[in-house]
Design a protein that fits this description.
- By secondary structure, the chain is α/β, with parallel strands linked by helices.
- Helices cover 41% and strands 17% of the residues.
- The protein has a seven-stranded parallel sheet, sandwiched between helices.
- Helix 2 links the parallel strand 2 and strand 3.
- It binds nicotinamide-adenine-dinucleotide and UDP-4-deoxy-4-formamido-beta-L-arabinopyranose.
- Nicotinamide-adenine-dinucleotide binds next to helix 1, helix 5 and strand 5.
- It catalyses: UDP-alpha-D-glucose = UDP-alpha-D-galactose.
- One of its GO terms (biological process) is galactose metabolic process.
- Mutarotase converts alpha-aldose to the beta-anomer. It is active on D-glucose, L-arabinose, D-xylose, D-galactose, maltose and lactose.
- GO terms for molecular function: UDP-glucose 4-epimerase activity.
């Protein structure tokens, strides 16, 4: 029997696909809604090749309340939602803010309204370390605990803070409404998962990150340099106050991150905390130069780079203090940076065209 049925918005995207896989591998049923804006349906085949189960899929926009209502009506067994669907390019968010507010905030509200009508009480939300902004502005906040004051420095980050607030108010209101009506109010819960820097791919080499446009994150760009699609990596600044002058981030393997969602679902079911935030990071910071070195090692040769000016809006250090997730969710990262680099390289080498490439024969024949 299924442990539960989870609606996964944005489930064909990078983190959503790995979380859908982890849910299926752990006995959940999965229903995905995604408008395929930044993903491909091929990922459903890959999930099935890996675990032998296929999620239900609906091509629905998360801002389309009627479309969401139909999915909930078709699947009355859904008891929780993991909400990934969003636009996520920091630079672009400052250029087309209305699109970002519409999808990220409007989409989140549409989803909560539809969940309310369907009486689905649990939501796990993809938030981001970016909500903290520059944590070095506050004394003693590196590594960053959940208590660090919020202070996003870009439109994307502000959309995440807004929807965190909307979820918090909504859950509190539903709890109050149920209390007044003498109904079980503890059912309504939300997890705000603040991811640090997700990276890596499936160790099989058949599932990974496949953004539709030009990548802008460090690891996918290093992948492009390794395959020769890019001449070199531009290192954004070597004048930061770090050991080698480059900025520090907390890189977390996407398989570990996916498991964090299952841990959060379990926690909501068991502890019914209302709304609570957790940092999902390793607690270990790495500089850009360290990442170039680690990835070069698995590729087998030095990858070329050029140091240029700092990128606007970048901060010195985003390293998580993951103690709350370690203790409460009983979750911690298990995989190393070396695992992430090796898995990413296997994915990039096997699939230079991402999901447009056929999987290796052994998977098809297996
Ligand atoms: P992704 O782009 O790979 O996945 C997002 C998915 O949402 C895509 O499949 C896309 O097609 C879908 N989508 C976009 N707009 C939609 C809409 N209007 N209706 C329905 N589906 C829509 O991104 P990801 O890296 O997997 O990120 C997932 C979530 O995690 C996002 O909310 C993102 O903001 C958050 N997050 C990501 C990172 C990161 O570095 N990747 C870090 C912190 C937080
Ligand atoms: C990592 C480091 C760059 C590219 C972003 C979002 C954040 C979250 C994760 C969604 C930084 C340096 C990068 C390059 C470089 N996403 N770099 N050359 O900026 O930490 O976080 O993605 O929530 O919100 O802001 O990730 O991978 O872009 O950069 O030197 O070509 O690599 O300066 O220090 P970032 P990133």
């Amino acid at each position: 029997m299924a442990v539960g049925t989870v609606l996964v918005t944005g489930g064909t995207g990078y983190i959503g696909s790995f979380t859908s896989l982890a849910l299926l591998e752990n006995g959940y049923e999965v229903v995905i809604v995604d408008n395929l804006y930044n993903s491909s349906k091929v990922v459903l085949d890959r999930i099935e090749l890996i675990c032998g189960k296929r999620p239900a899929f609906y091509e629905v926009d998360v801002t389309d309340e009627a479309g969401l209502d139909e999915v909930f009506a078709k699947h009355p067994e859904i008891d929780s939602v993991i909400h990934f669907a969003a636009l996520k390019a920091v630079g672009e968010s400052g250029e087309i803010p209305l699109e970002y507010y519409n999808v990220n905030v409007g989409g989140g509200i549409a989803l909560l309204r539809s969940m309310k009508r369907a009486n689905v009480p649990n939501i796990v939300f993809s938030s981001s370390a970016t909500v903290y902004g520059d944590a070095t502005r506050v004394p003693n906040m590196i590594p960053i605990p959940e208590e660090c004051p919020i202070g996003p420095t870009n439109t994307y980050g502000r959309t995440k803070v807004m929807i965190e607030t909307v979820i918090t108010d909504h859950v509190e209101a539903e709890r109050n409404r149920c209390k007044k009506a003498g109904q079980p109010y503890e059912r309504w819960n939300g997890a705000l998962l603040r991811y640090f820097n997700p990276c890596g791919a499936h160790p099989s080499g058949i599932m990974g990150e496949d953004p539709q446009g030009v990548p802008y994150n460090l690891l996918p760009l290093l992948g492009k340099v390794a395959t020769g699609d890019r001449k070199n990596l531009l290192v954004f600044g070597d004048d930061y106050a770090s050991k080698d002058g480059t900025a520090i981030r907390d890189y977390i393997h996407v398989l570990d991150l996916a498991n964090g969602h299952l841990a959060a679902l379990d926690y909501l079911q068991e502890h019914k905390p209302g709304v609570r935030a957790w940092n999902l990071g390793s607690g270990r910071g790495s500089t850009v130069f360290e990442m170039i070195k680690a990835f070069s090692k698995v590729v087998g040769h030095d990858l070329p780079y050029t140091v240029v000016e700092r990128r606007q809006g970048d901060v010195l250090d985003l390293t998580a203090r993951p103690a709350r997730a370690n203790e409460e969710l009983k979750w911690r990262t298990k995989l190393t940076l070396e695992n992430a680099c090796a898995d990413l390289w296997r994915w990039v080498e096997n699939n230079p065209q991402g999901y447009r490439q056929d999987p290796p024969a052994e998977f098809v024949e297996a």
